[in-house]
Amino acid sequence: METVRFPAKPFYVTYKDFHTDKLMRIKRRPPQANHSMLPTDIVELKTTKNDDWQAGDSETIKHVSYRNPNILQLENDSGQTTFVRSDVVLLKEQVADRGVPSVDDFKRNKYLLWP
C-alpha cells in the first residue's frame, strides 16, 4: 500500500472566550492521516449510516479535508454527500493518480476551512 503524505503544517484558530470576552488565538496541527485514500477513489461503507448510506454500498470520495485528513466526504450516484471517518470505509479501488507525493496544495482545499 502506497503512503500518501498529507501536510502537517500548523494553522491558527481564533475564537472568542465567553468567560473573559477576549479573542483567543491558538495553534493547531492537523492529525496524522491513517489511510492512503484520495479523492475519486472508490470505497465501501462498513457500517450503515442511514437509509441513503447503507453498509456495503460503493461510494466515491469527493474530498479529503486538509485540516482533518481522517474525515472523508463521500458522494453517491445520486449526488448526495456525507462525511465519514476513514475507519468506517474500506478502500475498494484506487482511481486517483498516486504519482503526486503529497496533497499539500492548501489553496485548492477550500472545503471545511473554519476560522
Describe the overall structure.
By secondary structure, the chain is mainly β. It has a single domain, classed as SH3 type barrels (Roll). It contains no helices and seven strands. The protein has strands spanning 11-17, 22-28, 42-45, 58-64, 71-75, 81-85, 89-93. A five-stranded antiparallel sheet has the order 6-5-4-3-7, with no helix packed on it. The N and C termini lie far apart (34 Å).
What's this model, at a glance?
This protein is an all-beta fold and 115 residues long. It has one domain (11-93): SH3 type barrels (Roll).
What would the CATH topology be?
A: SH3 type barrels
Largest sheet: 5 strands, antiparallel
Number of strands: 7
Query: How helix-rich are the residues, as a percent range?
Result: under 10%
CATH architecture call: Roll
CATH superfamily: SH3 Domains
Flag low-confidence runs: none
Give the percentage of residues in beta strands. 25-35%
What's the domain count?
Answer: 1
Number of helices: 0
So what's the overall shape? globular
CATH class: Mainly Beta
- Going across the major beta sheet, what is the strand order? 6-5-4-3-7
SSE series: EEEEEEE
Keywords:
single chain, 115 residues, mainly beta, SH3 type barrels, 5-stranded antiparallel β-sheet, two-stranded antiparallel sheet
Give the topology.
Blueprint: E1 11-17, E2 22-28, E3 42-45, E4 58-64, E5 71-75, E6 81-85, E7 89-93
Antiparallel strand pairs: 1-2, 3-4, 3-7, 4-5, 5-6
